[in-house]
Specification:
6-stranded mixed β-sheet, Rossmann fold, 596 residues, alpha/beta, 3 domains, ABC transporter transmembrane region fold
């Protein structure tokens, strides 16, 4: 790892800890209590032996009092036993938290994705970030649980080291220097070893890719014809062999380079052990301490260098995990795409106005809407027509503030829509988009978007012509849509799905209703029926209709004809149909042929 990268990892550590711990802390405070307890138990475990064994040895050598001996042994055995039981009990409890916490964080990701500004759902960077956050919070980092474990392990290691250093300092402080030198020397050999391993690994990934190509891709039958007809088999086998030789050579290179490091590592360990025994032994001979303390020094020194090694691994692991989990923090703090206002909408009888609105989708230059001017009076029913790609749906997306105009402004009740509270603004619209989605919930829940017994939906079902469909179902409105959750879920036809989506829009009872070609899956007669009824249903609400079938435009007060991002014609059906050479007149004539 380069210095720069390490630096960056450290910078990620604190934001990750802050976000993960505050999120998990609110939901699962007891997890932290249990983790702390487990850490204390784990720290205590080795100390029972280190502290009590010397007492037993010294007692055996000196006074040999049976009662005292029994009590020491009892402390040793019972102490270790209690700690082991406690530790395994805590492990069971903590395992349950692991599952729960992982699910909870996955849910947070889902909730955040649903509340992101819509345009980010089509933004490559935001989508990438979501993917990175998702993978970053799984086994790469172990999630909040895995990171918390590493942090508690770190704290535990620090506590353990403090205890061991204290014990050694009390009797043989010089030993600390020996251990320190040993750790530094080991650091060098390990770093060298890691360097060689990384070099070999980097080379191996190239070799492996080729190996994969020769080994797997060419056995794919699709290559069969060319291999046979051009006699490529021999060439392939030779390449494969060459590649295998390279791979073996690389392993050999790594083994040769790593071997001296491994040897040095063992040598340092031997020296460290030798010096520890020699020095502690000398202190026993000089009667500085007892044989009991001698064993204590030996085991404390061993435990100390193991713990120091553990601490180094622990820090590396923590930084690595935080590096991955940081993607989650980035996603959760992903900047908003749209500025949000605070104004509320009190007057529900408002006018909507597009003033010189132009729009290009983020990351593109093409003006999909170009200088659109239109005013929709309260209660007006506007029909929007035009060829595919004319910008009709985009117009609706801007109206619903899924995107903001690149130029110009949209006003509601005389105020720029950016000034309104976003939720409040969203509550004004009940759209049925072309690509509307139903959820794998009950039919009634799909309409009301809350848990519902469907009792208050009878009239709506009738109005939207869903009656026949619902009556056929054994569970009626309680039937689940799709078979995701239940075997007996229903797969409604395209037309039935649209009716459910329309019922959902009507149930929302918002001041503005939008139908974006929702009837594409219906036959012309059924569509005619829906539009006719819809006008009655929508009543004096403001309504926008996009349709390819101009027969439905007759019901609207005004028609706006979109062409290449501009409103080319505007008026009522009679005005437009009689316009010489008009786009609408031509479209109407072309369609009328089919119905005559
Ligand atoms: P209509 O509803 O009239 O068929 P749209 O408003 O859906 O037309 O599309 C207008 C233009 O904008 C089309 O050229 C379409 O390809 C483009 N467009 C639509 N959605 C996106 C998007 N998310 N990103 C980029 N371009 C888009």
């Amino acid at each position: 790892m380069s210095k720069d990268k390490k630096h960056k990892s450290i910078h990620k550590l604190f934001p990750v800890i802050k976000v993960l711990f505050s999120t998990a802390g609110k939901k699962y405070p007891w997890f932290f209590v249990f983790e702390a307890l487990k850490t204390l138990v784990q720290v205590a475990q080795p100390f029972v032996g280190i502290l009590v064994t010397p007492l037993i040895i010294d007692e055996l050598i000196t006074t040999r009092n049976v009662k005292t001996l029994i009590s020491y042994v009892a402390i040793l055995v019972v102490g270790e036993f209690v700690l082991i039981i406690f530790s395994s009990r805590l492990d069971t409890v903590l395992n349950k938290y692991q599952e729960r916490m992982n699910n909870y964080f996955t849910m947070q990701l889902g909730l955040h994705s649903m509340s992101l500004d819509f345009q980010l759902t089509e933004d490559k960077d935001a989508l990438d970030q979501l993917e990175k956050a998702r993978t970053g919070m799984t086994w790469y980092s172990g999630g909040a649980y895995g990171i918390a474990e590493q942090i508690f392990m770190f704290l535990g290691n620090v506590l353990k080291i403090t205890g061991l250093v204290t014990i050694i300092t009390m009797h043989a402080p010089l030993l600390l220097i020996v251990i320190l030198v040993y750790i530094v020397l080991n650091g060098f050999t390990t770093a060298k070893r890691n360097k060689y391993e990384l070099q070999a690994y980097n080379r191996l990934s190239g070799i492996n890719r080729l190996f994969g190509y020769f080994g797997w891709r060419i056995v794919d039958f699709r290559y069969g014809k060319d291999i046979r007809l051009y006699g490529a088999r021999e060439m392939m086998v030779n390449r494969w062999k060459k590649n295998t030789d390279e791979s073996i050579a690389n392993w050999k290179w790594q083994a040769d380079k790593v071997y001296p490091c491994a040897l040095l590592f063992e040598l340092f360990f031997l020296l460290r052990t030798l010096i520890t025994y020699f020095y502690s032994g000398l202190l026993v001979i000089r009667r500085v301490f007892s044989i009991g303390i001698f064993t204590q020094m030996i085991s404390a020194a061993g435990a100390l260098d193991a713990t120091l090694g553990g601490l180094v691994w622990n820090i590396q692991e923590l930084l690595k995990r935080c590096n991955y989990a940081y993607e989650y923090v980035l996603f959760m703090e992903y900047p908003e795409a749209l500025p949000k206002g605070k104004e509320m909408i009190d007057n529900k009888d408002y006018k909507i106005e597009f003033r010189n609105v132009s729009f290009a989708y983020p990351g593109t230059d093409k003006k999909v809407l170009d200088g659109v001017n239109i005013t929709i009076e309260p209660g007006e029913h506007l029909s929007i027509v035009g060829l595919n790609g004319a910008g009709k749906t985009t117009f609706i997306k801007l109206l619903c503030r899924l995107y903001d105009p690149t130029e110009g402004e949209i006003l509601l009740d005389g105020r720029n829509i950016k000034e309104y509270d976003y939720k409040e603004y969203m509550a004004q619209f009940a759209p049925v988009f072309q690509d509307f989605k139903l959820f794998g919930f009950k039919i009634s829940e799909n309409i009301t978007i809350k848990e519902n017994d469907g009792k208050d939906l009878k009239d709506l079902v009738k109005l939207t012509n869903l009656e026949e469909f619902v009556e056929k179902l054994e569970k009626g409105l309680d039937t689940r849509i799709f078979k995701i959750f239940e075997e007996d879920g229903v797969e409604p036809s395209g037309g039935e799905q649209q009716k459910i989506a329309i019922a959902r829009a009507l149930y929302k009872n918002a001041p503005v209703v939008i139908l974006d070609e929702p009837t594409a899956a219906l036959d012309p007669m059924a569509e005619y029926e829906i539009y006719r009824q819809f006008h009655t249903l929508v009543g004096d609400k403001t309504a926008f209709y996009i349709s390819h079938r101009l027969s439905s435009c007759r019901f609207c007060d005004r028609i706006a004809v979109f062409s290449e991002g501009k409103i080319e014609e505007y008026g009522n059906h009679n005005e437009l149909v009689n316009k010489p050479n008009g786009i609408y007149a031509k479209m109407f004539e072309a369609q009328a042929q089919y119905y005559r």
